[in-house]
User: Fold this.
Amino acid sequence: MKFNDVFVSREHRFSLGIEETTGRFYVSFPVSNGMADYEEYYEIDRATFELFQKDLTAALAFVTRGRHRELDQLLMVQPGTNRGSAI
Assistant:
């Protein structure tokens, strides 16, 4: 998979982008498991992607739910047994 960030919020620590191989849209944010820092990628549809580019509040609500592991069904890459926590 080749993730290409289109929008990055350094302040809120998340990004929006397009996975280049499949054309799928995503929201990502950093996580850490104590051994490594990495990104979790959550698939969204085009309409949601476009909404999040215009509406930061909506994007932050989604990111918060992802950080609380409420959107695991949308993960593009399943985490291993030593899953990290949002940082």
